[in-house]
Amino acid sequence: MNVAVAPGTVRTPILDRQAGHLRYRADIDGLRAIAILPVVLYHAGIPGFKGGFVGVDVFFVISGYLMASLIMREIIRGEFNLLRFYERRIRRIFPALFAMFAACGIMAWLFFMPAEFEYFARSLRAAAFFTSNFQFERESGYFDIGTQMKPLVHTWSLAVEEQFYIFFPLVLILLGRFARRYIAPILLTLLIASLAASVWAVHTNPVSAFYLTQFRIWELLLGSLLAFNVLPAVRSRPAREAVAALGILLIVYAVIAFDDSTPFPGLAALVPCIGAALVIHGHATNGPAGRLLTARPMVFIGLISYSLYLWHWPAIVFTRYLVWPELSPVQGVLVVLGAIAAAILSWRFIERPFRNQSGFISRRPLFAGAIAAVVASVILGDIVVEKQGVPERLPEIAQRIYSAKYDVARFSGPGCSPDRKGQEASAEDVRSGKLCNIGKTDSGEPKFLVWGDSHAEAMGPAIDAAASQAGVRGLTAPRPSCPPLFDVQLSDPLLFEKCREFNAAIRDMIAEQHIPLVFLVAYWPKYVHDAELPNQGIYFDPSVSPSLEDHSAPIAAALDRTLAELTRQGTKVVLVMDVPEMGRNIPEALAKAAIKGGSADVAPPWSYVEKRQALARSTIETYARKYDAMIVDPLPAFCSNGHCAAARDGVPLYRDADHLTATAARNLSYLYAHIFQPD
Predict the structure, then answer these.
(1) Which of 102, 209, 398, 657 has CA atoms 20 to 30 A from the CA of 173?
(2) Nearest to 161, CA basis, from 280, 7, 377, 372
(3) What per-residue string of b and e applies to 633-649 under the rule 16 or more CB within 10 Å gives b?
(4) What is the model's pLDDT at position 22?
(5) 24, 366 contact by CB (below 8 A)
(6) pLDDT tens digits for 223-248?
(7) Planar angle of CA 333, 334, 339, nearest 5 degrees
(8) Gyration radius from the chain CA atoms
């Protein structure tokens, strides 16, 4: 049975109610080709396919249609058996999927840095359990690595499908027994509810709307409803051709017109999904649309499309990681051709032998092998996560360099800032006095506050050392992606509300406890430009100019407001300039350079840093002068004589692309020593 979301590899059946058997439809294999090719070309960065991601939605519709047809046929004939159903799913899905897992695991072991390997291990565990959509939805946060570094991210769609098919057969069994006349209305009601939820979520929580099953069910149900003849049959050949052609045009329109900025899925997903439904309903075999759909190359691409879906994304990820960080169109085409070759081999030697129920492996060893594969994947994933990506894989010199990634200040733990598992410091934490102490912790009431985002957390050891030396106690209040400004307006509405609440609590605390000194520490260039560095991470390229667009107006207004209020109540303010951004994850970049014998000069040039920092520095200087605030500038500690340093004596100064190691921060304590000296 051929029912993957990602494309199918076997002949496509449809229930023929008069004949009581399943007929093959070559046009649906052609539809699979129309779906998979834009997905692959979009991922490979080929121009003209910026909306190619809609191909996955086409697969959802196809899958729902085929599965409903097959299940209802067997229910009507009294032949449906859940064990046989899941046997077919295992034969259909598992062999190529776990072969891909194994290949990716080998590549990840050989080439990934520990943090990357740990992310891979987490995704492997989730993908083996078909819950990777939940995993990737949770990982889409502040400290996440880029999607382009996740070779298993495309398994989210398989997870959605398998979660749906855990319950869908049971629903059809119950409806077929107790409410057969109302199957279509009930499914339509569920479809409308899921679509409405998707429309709501795409604007309130777009990441969840993309990954989570409840916001995608309607696409599978749309295909399922076609199997119940809810639409009038299209009798004439010209009408069938016109319906199918219109469906193809809708899909093509979505591929061409949509892009990453399109709110999706939501209402926009109706375009490719209705297009897929029209192609299925039209059942064109003649005319331009029919000839396109049933052309032998199209049908063949449809047959290998499941394997092509599985193998194309890992091929792109590892090619970019090892060879071409940014794929040109020609390089993208070469990767696609390689993925097609891998898909053909996978289809011929992995998929097809397992697919036939009378083939070389019977039901009992099939189930045993499937369970063993899942358990092995989970155990391997657990081991890698437990060992933090197994840094012992690396050569000794690379291990020493990479250890800087774990040189994190004590201010990074629970109660000081997020615990990296989703629990962020909240306004309630501030009100209930759960902030971390900094400086001389046994010296009475707090005399200062370090307030800011994750850069405040990273700078904490410098201020801590200076305050400890002076015998002064303070508090630290970092919250990631939240600048230390009252009533600041942020472009991200989800961040804005939480940040506003947190900063309001800080405002009350400063006033109530009469905090005499406040340090404002933040990732200032990010806020005034409303952007991090382009391609920050493994694919950073300093030849690509950083964002210099001026978005400083709301930041400047909030800084003015904050300094005015603090000055008015007698609080002294220290504005801390930001450290230079590196663009690359420094421990990883230097460890890779040590392994490959490459250059250790991985910092961007001074001209790049100067351009990137200019607007933030001028904004801070302007308001520091206006309110007689102090400035601490760490930039000269990193950049001099036209050059910026990412490491000293082979030891990284950063634990990622823009957060200092605890050791590097402590070495900056001299910048703050004078602030704690008695007047």
Answers:
(1) 209
(2) 7
(3) ebbebbbeeeebebbee
(4) 56
(5) no
(6) 999 998 888 888 899 999 999 999 99
(7) 95
(8) 29
Q: Does the pLDDT of residue 15 top 80, yes or no? A: no
Note whether 633 and 577 are within 8 A (CB). Answer: yes
Instruction: Please say if the pLDDT value at position 418 is more than 80.
Output: no
Q: What is the mean pLDDT of the chain?
A: 90
- Judge if the upstream peptide bond of residue 265 is cis by omega within 30 degrees of 0: yes
Query: ∠ CA(538), CA(36), CA(230), 5° rounding?
Result: 135
DSSP code per residue over 257-274: H--TTS--SGGGGHHHHH
Mean pLDDT of the 264-292 span: 95
C-alpha separations of 89 from 1, 5, 42, 97, 174 in Å: 8, 12, 28, 12, 21
Segment holding 101, helix H or strand E = helix 82-111
> What is the helix (H) or strand (E) element at residue 23, kind and residue range?
strand 21-24
Which amino acid is located at 287 in the chain?
Answer: G
Range 41-52 average pLDDT: 96
**Cα–Cα distance, 72 to 187 (Å, whole number):** 13
One DSSP character per residue, 297-350 reads: HHHHHHHTHHHHHHHHHHHHHHHHHHT-SS--HHHHHHHHHHHHHHHHHHIIII
Calpha distance 228→223 (Å, rounded): 10
Contact, 425 vs 477, CB < 8 A? Answer: yes
Which residues, in sequence order, are CB contacts of 585 under 8 Å at separation 6+?
A: 113, 115, 405, 537, 538, 656, 657
Encoded tokens for 504? 């309001």
Q: What's the sign of the alpha-carbon dihedral 661, 666, 671, 674? A: positive
Contact 25, 283 (CB under 8 A): yes
Top-confidence residue, 14 or 502: 502
Here the tokens at position 522 are 């933040």
**Interacting residues of 265 by C-beta distance below 8 A, sequence separation 6+:** 57, 198, 202, 209, 210, 215, 216, 219
**Cα 577 → chain centroid:** 30
Q: DSSP state, 180? A: G
Sign of CA dihedral 177, 181, 186, 188: positive
Q: How far is CA 584 from CA 38, 387, 575, 580, 645, in A?
A: 31, 24, 26, 12, 13
Q: What is the pLDDT of residues 349-358, one digit of tens each?
A: 999 988 876 6
Burial code of 573-596, b = ≥16 C-beta within 10 A, e = fewer?
bbbbbbbbbbbbbbbbbbbbbbee
The span from the first CA to the last CA of the chain, in angstroms, equals 81
Q: What percent of the chain has pLDDT over 90?
A: 75
Give the pLDDT confidence of 639-675 residue by residue, as tens digits.
Answer: 998 899 999 999 999 999 999 999 999 999 999 999 9
pLDDT greater than 90 at residue 424: no
d(CA 674, CA 679): 10
What per-residue string of b and e applies to 435-453 under the rule 16 or more CB within 10 Å gives b?
A: bbbbbbeebeebbbbbbbb
